[in-house]
Amino acid sequence: MQKFTRWIVPLAALFAIAAFLYIAPPGLLGKADAVGYAICHRIGERSFHVHDRQLPMCARDTGTFTSAGLTLLILALSKPKRGGMPSKKIVVVLIAFFLAWAFDGSNSYLYLIKQTYAGALPKIPNLYIPNNTLRLLTGTGMGMGMGSVLFAAFNQTAWKEQDSRPALGTWRDLGLLIAILLLVALGILSESIFVLYPVAFISVFGVIALLSLIFSVVWIMIMKTETSYSSLKEMWLALVAGLTLALIMLLAIDLLRIQLTGTWGAFPMG
């Protein structure tokens, strides 16, 4: 079985990459759009733009996946192999970020329905007018929570010798991470092309990194190789399998959505 997978997984990866590049719109930003297309509504009014071109994801998802990708990268570089979940006091903060994300998302979705469909839910008031600044900031908090929890879960599953301490265990750890992500968010809000262009690809990295790690954990569990790895080099097959499954999922959603809508644009409303 191991010998078979060592051949089939790389071949499947090449097929998935080739298929994704083939169906995606042309250009580097077109490929980024295809990733966003699989996980985001991509409504123009709810997105940031570089001149007349919107980013691959809406403001909320840009915040979420840029934050998640940077969180994973920062923790991997600064606290490698730490497998402890965030401490209880920090979990409270992450739950608060999640609740803010859920509340603002619900309010925003209600506002969208009432705008799109005449007479829909007229008696349910919006507490405030949603905006891209709140979408970005609540998404940023959510992405930090997603990245930090998945980082711990992956390390717990993969490493033979792991550090049981949490990567986010102190207020200093949390404060430093929040400060970095807040600076990035403020850069996005400036709408400078020197920030938005890199963010377009960082957010895509966040999507692919999250999905690849999730599927890598699933692969490791299926192959029953939990806590058996000492280095990334030993783990290459599981990581490639995770990336392959992530691309296949994105590809399948893209094909289904374009079949249903006939466009690479936003979900048609109304």
Strand and helix layout:
Elements lengths: L1 H22 L4 H12 L9 E2 L2 E2 L4 H20 L3 E3 L3 H29 L15 H27 L4 E4 L4 H20 L2 H30 L13 H26 L9
Parallel strand pairs: 3-4
Antiparallel strand pairs: 1-2
Helix pairs in contact: 1-8, 2-7, 2-8, 3-5, 3-7, 4-5, 5-6, 5-7, 7-8
Task: Describe what you observe in this structure.
There is one protein chain. The protein has 8 helices and 4 strands, in the order ααββαβααβααα. The chain has one domain. Helix content is 69%, strand content 4%. It is globular. The protein starts with a helix and ends in a 9-residue tail after the last helix. The chain has helices at 2-23, 28-39, 59-78, 88-116, 132-158, 171-190, 193-222, 236-261; strands at 49-50, 53-54, 82-84, 163-166. α5 packs parallel to α7 (193-222) and α7 (193-222) packs across α8. By secondary structure, it is mainly α. The strands form 2 sheets. Strands 1-2 form a two-stranded antiparallel sheet. It has a two-stranded parallel ribbon with strand order 3-4.
Order of helices and strands: HHEEHEHHEHHH
Strand order of the largest sheet: 1-2
Shape category: globular
Rg for CA atoms: 20 Å
> Major sheet, described briefly?
2 strands, antiparallel
Protein traits:
270 residues; 8 helices; two-stranded antiparallel ribbon; mainly alpha; two-stranded parallel ribbon
